[in-house]
Amino acid sequence: MKLIHKNYSRREFIKANLIVGTGTFMGLGMGNRILASSSVEASVPAILGGKPVVTSHNWPSWPIWEPTTDEKRLLEVMRSGVWSRDKVTTEFEKKWAGLLGAKRCLAVVNGTNALNTSLAQLEIGWGDEVLVTPYTFIASVSCILFNGAIPVFVDVDPATFQMDPGKIEEKITPRTRAILPVHILGLPCNMERIMGIARKHNLLVIEDACQAWLAEINGKKVGTFGNAGCFSFQTSKNMSMGEGGAIISDDDEFMDRCFSYHNYGNPYGSTAGQIGAGTVMIGTKLRLTEYQAAIGLAQLERLEDQTDIRNDNAKYLKSLIEKIPGIVPYRLYENVTKAAFHLFPFLYKNEYFKGLSRKRFLEALHAEGVPCSSGYTELNKMPFLKNAFESKYFRKFYPAERLDYDKYAGENRCPLNEKLCNEQAIWIPQNILLGSKSDMKRISSAIEKIFSNAEEIKNKKL
Q1: Structural domain boundaries of the chain?
Q2: Which of 230, 102, 151 is nearest to 402 (CA)?
Q3: Which residues are 221's β-sheet partners?
Q4: Can you name the CATH fold of 67-296?
Q5: What span, in angstroms and rounded, lies between the C-alpha atoms of 165 and 192?
Q6: At what angle do helices 437-452 and 290-321 cross, to 10 degrees?
Q7: Distance from C-alpha of 326 to C-alpha of 15, rounded to nearest angstrom
Q8: What is residue 33's predicted lDDT score, i.e. its pLDDT?
Q9: Exposed, middle or buried: residue 234 (CB in 10 Å: 0-12, 13-18, 19+)?
Q10: d(Cα 296, Cα 437) in Å, to the nearest integer?
Q11: pLDDT (tens digit per residue) in 84-132
Q12: pLDDT grade, residue 43 (50/70/90)?
């Protein structure tokens, strides 16, 4: 399908292609998705038998692939027969580093191993403690255990969904070696305060920016504040190549070690050592393929415009739903100049909804045709932690008192995170924010319907 209008700005062109590529006509809020009529049926929630606000589920799909623009480079790579790491991967690394304002980038197989590698090459490991948020994906914590260190959980600020910097210093001990802030959901942490604390206590900082592509604080991209920044390019992510990850840093020696580590420990740059000595360090194989890099280069062409669209729609949706009692959208720190919005989060306070449970609220919102979820469960209470403490090597290295799991669990309780995970948090996925302003109005209308009929929804028998 060809576009009729030629005088598009670049951003308008990108948005139009998003619409065409997903088979969704949204520019004027028309097409298959029609707001419920002004009849009595319109005020009845779908879960109670009324008409859904969204009558077709043709939200923008993800990931997006445009054959006419995206396949040329990929086919060139496939036909070349050079599939393992080579020039295309290097090109992607240079473009990613340049876009973020970092000196160096190393592409690896996934974001998890970007974190694993960064901690390993900053020599964070056995005997060390690393401060981390409990409100995150498991990789933010498993990387700490993978390297033999012990995670220490810092409770969240529910308004921002981020690690609360005001609670960091009380968690620091003589064994604390690093802080691992996670820009979860694509919303930046308060990096200025975190970096101040890190400098005061001489701690390393590894930024988990695996959900925060192009997010920025005072115009500076997240991932460039600490000693290393880690990114993920897994399929669901805003910047996707199926699987993939990256490390960025301005520290040449650190990046040389990371490169060597991701390539079996073979010599590279400052790690070369004696000529002809062979493998110089303990390493593994984490190399990105050329065809993944080609996919990444295609996705990179759209990322800036898509990020702007998500930010615009998130701001608009927030302005609509924050007027509904009991709905409290995310709050960005004052110095945040751009977020990534891998997810659009808000707090649900059921006391304003006649005591309607979050589970029932989500069911009602789903019935209206709005994709949503309750988000993370309590990471600091998952059994993988106890499993690590009971493993052979942890028991061999750490004294028994350090591995007293009941004591550890008590010291690492995070009551605000507990409430966030179990009662309050609600997510809307990032692809929904690539829709139209009318789509955002539909989401708000769906929540308003549930609010107005909360008592009836609560009392309805399943």
Answers
A1: 10-66+304-375+421-459, 67-296
A2: 151
A3: 216
A4: Aspartate Aminotransferase; domain 2 (3.40.640)
A5: 10
A6: 50
A7: 32
A8: 36
A9: middle
A10: 28
A11: 999 999 999 999 999 999 999 999 999 999 999 999 999 999 999 999 9
A12: confident
CATH class of the domain comprising 10-66+304-375+421-459: alpha beta
Retrieve residue 325's tokens. 């009692």
Phi, then psi, of 411 in degrees rounded to 5? -70, -20
Q: Six-digit token pair at 103? A: 């000196």
Report pLDDT digits (tens) over 197-245: 999 999 999 999 999 999 999 999 999 999 999 999 999 999 999 999 9
